[in-house]
Specification:
Oligomer: single chain
Radius of gyration: 12 Å
CATH architecture: 2-Layer Sandwich
CATH superfamily: K homology (KH) domain
CATH class: Alpha Beta
CATH topology: GMP Synthetase, Chain A, domain 3
Number of helices: 3
Distance between the termini: 21 Å
Shape: globular
Strand order of the largest sheet: 1-2-3
Number of domains: 1
Amino acid sequence: MKEFLEYIAKQLVDQPDSVSVEEENQEGKTILKLKVAQPDVGKIIGKKGRTAFGLRTLVAAVGKKAGKKVILEILD
């Protein structure tokens, strides 16, 4: 899942080298923390949060298929 999210995020931003994803497990949940360069934060969030919502939906669907609950956090 980490690699999947990293791949998608790198396709959306201008500075793909600055994309990093940290994976943390808490209480049966997997938390993915996405960090991008400051100028690219808006591209990851999108207008009215639509891109972020789409990313969260994709990550949750992939996690559900693997039998895990996955949460996406976008760090700035």
